[in-house]
Here is the input.
Amino acid sequence: DADVTQTPRNRITKTGKRIMLECSQTKGHDRMYWYRQDPGLGLRLIYYSFDVKDINKGEISDGYSVSRQAQAKFSLSLESAIPNQTALYFCATSDYTGFAFFGQGTRLTVV
Amino acid sequence: KNEVEQSPQNLTAQEGEFITINCSYSVGISALHWLQQHPGGGIVSLFMLSSGKKKHGRLIATINIQEKHSSLHITASHPRDSAVYICAAQAVSNYQLIWGAGTKLIIKP
Here is the structure.
């Protein structure tokens, strides 16, 4: 089994719909992250969580929300999807040193 | 100017060649990460280093803290090394990663 599992792997949704991307990890790490990747750009941090009771905004949190349901689970929601949220989304987890393990990514298309 | 700059953006080489990818950063860091993104999209962490040099198989990562520069080397390159290589600086202020834009490497047989 993968250390970090993202579901779904691919999703096409309509503008205005609410969508949730889920992430679970088996590394036992406290720290979890959601990133967005657009073609030609570096990864950008959406939200991060250093433990179950800790949620922090990243550089591009507008239009997104997260929920840390347990140490192993961190979900990302788009409350009302818009086309410029079309991107590749990655969940990651790290230990206190920062060495990260990534999920396989979720390719989201908003039409 | 971006805080993390990689060069080159694209690199095509023949199988067997020695590959060097460079990363310069302008922020104070606690560590420098190198990652590999496969054509299918998955990202794998290769190295995390704060000084000196690390080696894993045919991959070598070096860092010069004074010059704020890191390099990733691939010896005896192979077509399966074709991927995007990304460096990311772990900021000393908040431990967040500042990402480079990546270097797309193609190794031709």
